[in-house]
Write a structure and sequence with these properties.
It is a single chain. The chain is mainly alpha-helical. The chain contains 6 helices and 3 strands. The protein has a 3-stranded antiparallel beta sheet. α2 crosses α5. The longest helix is centred in the C-terminal third of the chain and has 21 residues. It is elongated and about 65 Å long.
């Protein structure tokens, strides 16, 4: 697939005079305070894979699991206890994270212990959570830390 380039994005509309001439104020003049060079291009496959990774992380329970695994590897019952979510739902979310390459499970006797595959993934989640907390702090009072609602939305379990 072709790389996505800044040229493929829609250009801003320019108003024209009735004779088709551009008005002087319509011409783009880059701001001297910012770098106007285009960002490096990424291969389309890389962008698709990044989107799939973000989709795999796009559920509150999965975000909470990643935050737990950032601290230490954990087995399912430890995640159930820490998050206050039913075991089948934790297992379902772990399957999604495992298939996306976010977590890896290793059998230790009768239990499977899960860990993050890569610390980059924790940074994505930590930064997203920090941003959400900052945004929430500006718009409404912060909620007390409460366990995740096991069935906070029907869509969450359907997308898992």
């Amino acid at each position: 697939m072709p790389a996505v380039s800044p040229d493929s994005a829609a250009e801003p509309a320019r108003s024209t005079a009735s004779a088709g001439r551009l008005h002087q104020h319509d011409e783009h003049v880059p701001s001297p305070e910012r770098d106007s060079r285009p960002a490096p291009l990424r291969d389309q496959r890389t962008l698709v894979e990044a989107g799939e990774l973000l989709r795999a992380l796009a559920a509150p329970v999965r975000i909470a699991i990643v935050l737990q695994l950032r601290v230490s590897e954990r087995c399912v019952h430890e995640l159930v206890d820490a998050l206050g979510v039913a075991q089948p739902l934790i297992s379902q979310h772990l399957r999604v994270l495992k298939s996306a390459g976010v977590v890896h499970g290793e059998r230790h006797g009768r239990e499977v212990v899960y860990r993050l595959v890569d610390e980059h993934l924790a940074h994505i989640v930590v930064d997203a959570a920090a941003h959400a907390e900052e945004t929430a702090g500006r718009s409404r009072p912060a909620a007390d830390s409460a366990p995740i609602a096991p069935h906070s939305s029907r869509q969450e379990t359907e997308t898992a």
